[in-house]
Amino acid sequence: MTNNKILYLITASFLFWLGGSHPSPAEIIDPAMLSGDIRLTLKRGVWKTWEGEPVYQDITLDLVCDANKCDREVWGFAPKFNQADHQGILQTSQRGRLWNLDVQMQISPDPWQSLEGQAEYDIQVRLHDDNQLIGTYSGTLNDQPVKGEVQGIIRPHWSKPVANHRPLRPQEHPRLIFRQDQLPQLRQQAKTPRGEAILAQLQRSLDQPIYYDGYVPTGGYHAAGYCFLSLIQQDQAAAETAWQITVNSMNQPGSRLLEHSTVVAGLALAYDLCYPAWDEEQVQQVADWLATQTALLVKGTAGNGWNPNPASNWNARARGAAGLAALALLEEGDVETRRWLKVAERNIKRYLTIGIGDRGFGSEGDHYSTEPWFLTVMPFLQAYQTVLGEDLVTRSHAAWFLPQYVTRMVGEDGEVAIPTYGRHRLSPTGSIFAVGLGIVPERLLPGVMWFFNRHWGRNGDNSFGIELPHEAAYVFAGYPQDVTLQNPAEVWGRVVVDAQKGFFTFRNQWRDENDFVTSIFVKREKPRGGHWSFPDAGSFRIWGLGGRWATAGMASDGKQRDENVVLLPEKQAGKTAKLTGFQASADGSGMVSLQHQNWLRSLAVDYSGASGVPGLFVLVDQVVDAAEPNQTWIMHTQEKVTIQGQQFTLEAESGATMQGTFITPSDVNLEFIPSETGGKIQATGRDRFIVVMTVQSGTASEVEVLGTGFNPQIQVENQTIEIIEDKIVLKSLKEGAN
């Protein structure tokens, strides 16, 4: 029998099983089940030529459906084929338990892959479980046949309609931050003490130098600040100043798309806010410029550092700016605007799904996560909600972006910082709150506002987080009037876990600069195409009582020696890790265990006070089947270090101390290696590393070792420490297990 006949029989049998000729009523798909955001992956659905032969890749089609009635527009993405989004039209029908879809799609090129053309797909799928679809397809791409299996998933609609949203009126501006009919109310707010404080901070930001180059050109944001001032104070002179800055910015584009994105975002806001004050020629000049730049940011370039991969901060900054500009221009002439908006939206959604975890932690680290957010991503999300009446935040990972940072930030009166991860080691500032207040979901807003007011609002430094001028407009529009403030511990608790990324934060309280914050990064995934994935699996941070006990090495070159880890061979260091255990308590204490290659690590955090000190930390590290007998354990610190025997002592300016005791190896070699920003404690030895660390303002509790052997029992005051397999178990002698 020929291969073709075998393939025919297999396919025929599969289709008979799939469809059947007389389905029973129980087998018929309930149309209500075909509701939501539906994603269908067509195996080998696209191809391109490599060395004269076709190479096939999968394509994923995204549909929006409601009870089997789908939007006619369908979009595709095939990241191994190219980085473009492919637009098509869809027709659906239902026959028994089969769902039939006919798709005609325009395959688009990207800056590196010029192949384009027409694809047609005839798809048949059936429901498998509650939200799974399976089936087959056949079709053509540029008249060449394609066919294969289909796998699909049905998810709840991402977008949530905004209550009482009013459709956009023709040429209605402003629209991106607030709507035209909100102006009278905002002008009244400007006369209140809060409004006066915000405008004073706006003026201080406008008095800062304007940068038309650098990593973050600020001309567009200054123009937007003057335009907002013009609207609120009905000041034509401010609009004229904004125009001069706008012209200067249009004539000085960013050197790369990364920098240029901030120019476009700022001028999109200026265009929207100054639309009523500029004349028709000025408005048209900026509109034409924005349309050209929107297309550029959506399409990308073939060189100069452009990275369109979903997890990249380049993608987030550029596509956020493109989406913002498209929303500014929507319904004003250019027929391509809606398409550019859709492509920008799809890229931001992929970024929120892949680059950002389910509790808001970014794969590229803190600096490369927060920077695109307050520059373009949050402005886009706000504008999408204001212009289109659709909320992209509440049902997405974006919902937790600010609460995650509230959980990690320590300080007082706006002087806050976090124990950072990733390149540059720069903490986020109040800007992310100034721009983001208007999109925080209602259920999380009481805790975010409690923190915001305490640090940047009337109970803080009174800056309202404003650093760049455009941020003032966001605070004016986004500041909620009727929220009952609650301590974050009452809203989302003291332990926040980003399960997707493997990032764990343990906090004891929200009070002042003495709060304890401990975090550990399990690094459960490493997204494709992100530039800045560090060898930081298993690295941890400990702050408390004013001390920066375990912090990041300050270098930005992505070396494992700048993390708090046991050193592994370089080829293994950058890979992902596996979570092997987790526990958490209501007081913020907890335990995390992980495996990274052949290295096992367990970290326990105890804020209960059973140990006689406010902070107890235990680390157990073991490298299995190590090539070298000696291993190296590293912890970076910013505090004063002394070493004696098996112990190290750190002392902070506050007078608090951390005392660390190595239970094993019994002959550990400890040394301190200074640096410009502190230094690192380095331990070497042949056995497992078992380290007990206490943080206190007075005398450290005694660490007692009870018994000997591979898993010694350790006691610190009324807290006992046991090691069971690769996990740490804490048990209070008074209260039982934690």
Task: Give a description of the structure.
This protein is α+β, with helices and mostly antiparallel strands and 738 residues long. It is 28% helix and 30% strand. β25 and β26 form a beta hairpin. α7 crosses α9 (337-355).
Notable features of this structure?
738 residues, alpha+beta, 28% helix, disordered N terminus
| Annotation field: number of helices | 16
What fraction, in percent, of the residue positions are helical? 25-40%
Strand count, sense and barrel status of the largest sheet are:
8 strands, antiparallel, barrel
What's the overall average pLDDT, rounded?
93
For the largest beta sheet, what order do the strands appear in spatially? 1-2-4-5-6-7-8-9
Shape: globular
- Please, what is the oligomeric state? single chain
Structural class: alpha+beta
What percent strand? 25-35%
State Rg.
28 Å
Q: Which residues sit in consecutive blocks of at least 5 with pLDDT less than 50? A: 1-26
Q: What's the number of extended β-strand segments? A: 34
The N- and C-terminal alpha carbons lie at a distance of 67 Å
